[in-house]
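Hi V.,

Quick status before I head out on leave. The structure for the redesign project is tokenized and pasted below; the design run finished overnight.
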């Protein structure tokens, strides 16, 4: 017999929310989901999985249009059979894409830049602020949050920051690592940086600053509201293991 714990490690469902922000507005966003092969044991050749519907008709319609791997997955009466033996570790059995309008952003943030007045000569310091707000409806909030600032090389010193940060002048990068953010929480990450030679071209310096925020959602939840069940092949619904290692990520 194969333990249920081994079965739970066989497949994982992943959703990724990805968006870009400019001047305080989301310019583009997309949500992608897939069911992947995970740490399947050697003695488990196949597993069955099913995706349960959400409360959104748009999301459910997109699920009907999902692409299924022709070789390693078959669908029968709403249930999928995933082949595990002799499959690559990065196999995706099912993929779907959702419109951004169907899924609220899990995190909203922006990048604000402030420079001293121009009549004081070449600026020596610059203030960077990243305000953020976590979706209050997001179950469990966010975990493993990483905020990365990519800088132009003239910003070669970190004066101070509101949160503990790792600064690499060689890579022109500041990075913050935050264990978790609660749903509905708001705040701002601030940093003051300096230029040893002074900032000669303000517009160019500002244009070359980029911020990237990476995070994971709380395990066992999804952005879309879709559920994930996995069981041994031939099991009835009530014998499925239910949601197990459901991962969500975003940036």
């Amino acid at each position: 017999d194969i333990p249920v714990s081994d079965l739970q490690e066989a497949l994982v469902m992943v959703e990724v929310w990805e968006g870009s922000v400019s001047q305080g507005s989301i310019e583009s966003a997309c949500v992608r989901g897939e069911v992947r092969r995970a740490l399947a044991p050697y003695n488990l050749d196949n597993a069955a999985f099913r995706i349960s519907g959400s409360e959104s008709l748009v999301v459910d319609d997109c699920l009907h249009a999902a692409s299924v791997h022709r070789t390693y997955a078959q669908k029968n009466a709403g249930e999928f059979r995933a082949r595990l033996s002799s499959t690559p570790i990065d196999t995706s059995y099912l993929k779907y894409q959702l419109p951004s309008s169907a899924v609220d952003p899990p995190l909203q943030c922006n990048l604000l830049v402030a420079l001293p007045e121009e009549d004081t000569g070449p600026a020596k310091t610059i203030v960077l602020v990243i305000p953020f707000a976590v979706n209050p409806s997001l179950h469990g909030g966010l975990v493993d949050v990483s905020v990365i600032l990519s800088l132009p090389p003239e910003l070669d010193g970190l004066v101070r920051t509101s949160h503990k940060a790792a600064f690499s002048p060689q890579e022109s990068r500041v990075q913050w690592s935050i264990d978790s953010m609660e749903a509905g929480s708001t705040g701002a990450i601030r940093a003051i940086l300096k230029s040893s030679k002074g900032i000669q071209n303000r517009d160019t310096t500002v244009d070359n600053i980029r911020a990237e925020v990476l995070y994971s959602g709380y395990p066992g939840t999804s952005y879309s509201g879709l559920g994930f069940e996995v069981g041994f092949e031939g099991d009835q619904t009530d014998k499925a293991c239910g949601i197990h290692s459901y991962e969500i990520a975003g940036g």
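Above is the designed sequence. The first strand starts at residue 11 and ends at 22.

G. will cover questions while I'm gone.

Best,
W.
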